[in-house]
Amino acid sequence: MTPTGLDSESIVVIGAGFGGLSAACHLADAGADVTVVERRDHLGGVAGRIERDGFRFDTGPSWYLMPDVFERFFGRFGREPSDYYSLTRLDPNYRVFWKDGDSAAVPADRAGQRALFASYESGADDALDAYLSDAAAAYEVAMEEFVYERRPRVRDWFDPSLLRAARGLPLLGSMDDHVADYFEHPKLRQLVEYTLVFLGGSPYNTPALYSLMSHVDYTLGVHYPTGGMASVVDGVARLARDLGVTFETRTPVTGLEPTADGLTVTTTAGQRTVDRVVSNAPPSYTERELLPAGRGDRDPDYWASRTYAPSAFVLYLGVEGDLPALSHHTLVLPTDWRSHFESIFDRPSWPSDPSYYVNVPSRTDDGVAPDGHSTVVVLVPIAPGLDDGPDQRARFREAVLDDLAAHTGVDLRDRIVVERSACVTEFASMGYPQGTALGLAHTLGQTGPFRPSQRSAAVTGLYYTGSFTDPGIGVPMCLISGAHVADAVRADVGVDAEAGVRSLVPF
Question: What global pTM score does this model have?
Fold first, then answer.
C-alpha cells in the first residue's frame, strides 16, 4: 500500500545528490509537497557529468554496485531500474596492474575467480569460497539489521534479536587482520580489500564487518548503466518528478532560520517558510553556513576532529584511439600499498608511490566518446586538506601519467584532446569538510549510531541525508539514507510512528 499521511507537510530538500533525490521520492510518495533546491544547474551533486566535444564523463561515482539496493529502491514505487536505464554486467569485473610487472583480470564468474586465486596461492580457491560464504552471511545480516533497519541510538544496537542475528559476525578487528585469516598472499588480500576505498577507509582502519563488500563485488557483480552513473541520476530525478517533486536548479540556499511556524529557507530567489527541511549538504556546512550561529547540533571542534574519507586527484581525459590494455575498470597498485594509505590517514601528504583507479567507460559504451576516441578518468585517492595549488597539481599530473605509462604500457600524454581535473579545492567548494570527496570514513567510531543522525537534535524539523549520515558512504547507502529520513519524518508527524524503514520498503 502506498504510504500516506504527509499531505499537509511542506518540505524543502537542500541539494540534489542521491540522498536528497531519494528523500524527495519517499516524502512525495507519502503525500508531502516537496521542492528540491539545487545550487548547480544539474542534479546529482558529486554524481554529475561533464560533456565536451562528444565526450561524456561521470564526475563522481562510476561503479554500479549492490544492484539489489537499486531494485529495492525502485520497487518501493512499483518500478524497476530498467524502466529508467539499462545495465550491462561487466566481465571482467576489473583488471589490476601491479607495479612489479604482474597483472590479472578478475572474472565475473566464480569458477574463473577460483582459478585466479589458486594461481597465486595453493588452496586459495577453497579459501575464497569460505571467505565469500562468510561475506554473504555478513551482507545479509548487516543489510537487514544494520542498514535497512534504522537504529539511530546506541541502545538500539543492544536489541536481543539483533545480538542473536549478529552472532559470529566479524564486528571488531581490522579488515586486514580478518582477511589474513583466509589468504597469505598480499596480492590476494588486495583483491578483496580494494573495495574499502569506496567506503572512504583503508584495510587498517575499517572494521572487519565490511568484508561484506567482497560479496558485493565477487557475487553480486559489477554493472554499468548505459550513459554512466549520470543516467541513474536522471532516472531517479524522473521518478521524483513522476511523484510530484518540484526542482529548482541554480538556486543556492543562503540561510536557514528556525521559526515558530517551521523553518524559513532563504535562497537567491527569495524566502519561503516550510514545515520541514531535509539537507543533503554536509551537516557541518549546514551548521556553519546556513543556520544561525550556535544553532547546530555540534561545535566546530567536533567536525575538526572527525576522520574524513579521502579526497581525490581526478583527471577527466578525452584521448585519441582505443585502449585495449585497459578494462572498463582498472586498478594500478604497488605490491605494498600501506604507504599510500598512511599518506592519507596517518601522515597527510601527496603519495610518492600511488595506488589509483582508471575508468574507461568507452570500452563498454560507444555513446560516451566520439568515434575513434576513448573517455578516460584517472582517480588517485589522496588525503583531504592537502594544498593542491596549480604547481602541485601539474607536478602530480605528470607523475601519474608517467606511472600509468610505466606500469600499464598506456601512454596518454600525446593523445589527450580534452582535459579537465578536480582535486581538494573543487570538493571543498561543494561544502565538503577538508575537501573530502566522499564523507566521513567508516572507522569503528564513525559507523552506525556513531555517525550523524538523520534527525537534528537541535533544530526541530531539520533532517540530514547523504554520505555524512548513517548508513554511510556510497550511492546505495545514500538511497537508503533518504528512506531513513522519510521514516523519521513520518514518525515525527505521527504516521506509522513505530514503523521502521521496512515499512517504506515492501520486501
Answer: 0.91
Q: What span, in angstroms and rounded, lies between the C-alpha atoms of 234 and 474?
A: 17
Q: What is the pLDDT of residues 235-249, one digit of tens each?
A: 999 999 999 999 999
CA pair distance 231, 64, nearest whole angstrom: 11
Query: Architecture of domain 10-85+227-306+441-504 in CATH?
Result: 3-Layer(bba) Sandwich (3.50)
Residues of the chain under the 50 pLDDT cut: 1-3, 497-507
Q: How far apart are CA 311 and CA 235, in angstroms?
A: 27
Q: Identify the bridge partners of residue 278 per DSSP, sorted by sequence position.
A: 13, 463
Instruction: Please name which of 361, 364, 400, 403 lies closest in space to residue 382, comparing C-alpha atoms.
Output: 400
Cis check: omega of the bond before 92, within 30 degrees of 0? yes
DSSP state of 310: P
Q: What is the pLDDT of residue 315?
A: 98
* Identical topology for domains 10-85+227-306+441-504 and 109-220: no
Question: What per-residue confidence (pLDDT) applies to 159?
Answer: 58
Strand extents, DSSP E, 138-226: 223-225
The residue type at 140: E
Number of H helices, E strands in the chain: 15, 19
State the DSSP H helix or E strand holding residue 88, giving kind and residue range, or none if neither.
strand 87-89
The type of residue at 504 is L
Instruction: Identify the pLDDT of residue 412.
Output: 97
Domain ranges across the chain: 10-85+227-306+441-504, 109-220, 307-429
In the prediction, which pLDDT does 4 show?
56
CA-based R_g, the chain, Å: 22
User: Is 401:408 a contact under the CB 8 Å cutoff?
Assistant: no
The confidence score (pLDDT) of residue 161 equals: 56
Confidence at residue 503, expressed as pLDDT on a 0 to 100 scale:
37
Q: Which residue's entry shows cell 521518478?
A: 239
Q: Which residues pair with 259 in a beta bridge?
A: 262
- CATH T-level assignment (fold) for domain 109-220: Guanine Nucleotide Dissociation Inhibitor; domain 1 (1.10.405)
- The length of the chain in residues reads 507
pLDDT of residue 247: 97
